[in-house]
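Hello forum,

I keep getting stuck at the same step: I have a sequence, I want structure tokens, and every attempt I make locally crashes halfway through. Rather than fight my setup again tonight, could one of you with a working pipeline run this one for me? It's a single chain of 357 residues.
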Amino acid sequence: MSSSKSGSSGTTGKPAEAAEAGAPRGATAAARTAATARTAAGARAATARTKAPGKKAAPRKATATGTSAAGTTAAKAPATGAKAPARTSGPAKAGGRTKAPAKPESHLAMVRRARRINRELAEVYPYAHPELDFRNPFELLCATVLSAQTTDLRVNQTTPALFAAYPTPEDMAAAVPEEMEELIRPTGFFRAKTKSLLGLSAALRDEFGGEVPGRLDDLVKLPGVGRKTANVVLGNAFGVPGITVDTHFGRLVRRWKWTDEEDPVKVEAVVADIFPKSEWTMLSHRVIFHGRRVCHARKPACGACPIAPLCPSYGEGETDPEKAGKLLKYEMGGQPGQRLSPPADYPGKPAPALGAG
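Reply #2:
Ran it on my machine without issues. Output:
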């Protein structure tokens, strides 16, 4: 019996003892085999759990001195297969998901939106026109010079007496400065404007035979005449396309994100690249009309704006339709326009003469 036991233990050997690690002493061969199988199955399951994507390994229990090395590693790095959430500064949506930032508008998309705004304004203001009264290029030139730092309405109320006294460049060039100053005083800056009118009249008399030239290069050489004034005269007295960048035009094209340029010459160049040349003059009238009637400098009437869906600055002004409607001016608000002698298709009332109300 003793030899049998010793033979049995001798045939088991050390490899078998290593394979049966975890089996209780004195267990039968069958029991030891079952224990070995359970141990192997547990090892395979542990390996599968470690390799499974998106699962975090359970951290070790904290020791008396703090978190274990395994716990620290798990806290610093996400588990295999899991992505760390991106940080965002925008508002969070319901469910904890963050809203992606708006994609910047491409140049092509901006051009398309700008041209659509022009088409929409053409339908809103089919009667858009220069809002200065004039009968010939000389009167338009003088009226445009006078319109600096004042309204077209005040100019229109002032020019009838001026042109009655000085109907031609020759007449105006010979005017007594003090007498002209009194006539144009209501427009403001009357001394500087008198100097410009006398200078341009003399230049027209001496250099252009008493006629207003029809070229930009010639017009800008006249005293008190810049690109804005020259484009007004060319577009409306000679039919030569031009972009008029006044305060209204500059304000609106920046609100519409066509450009962020402040300099009028740069604004003109940018807008000229967006629109065909044939649109320049009427585009100027429409934008200026909209700026005077709806899109005011201090409080635009956003809630009554016909192009609100196309405006990236919607909300800068009053959005309530009823309140916004009260901000509309001129014919849009049921009031007289700026011209004493408006075009036949103008839907509003003529402006009153100076001193008439």
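The two ends are 137 Å apart (CA to CA). If your local run keeps crashing, start a new thread with the error log.
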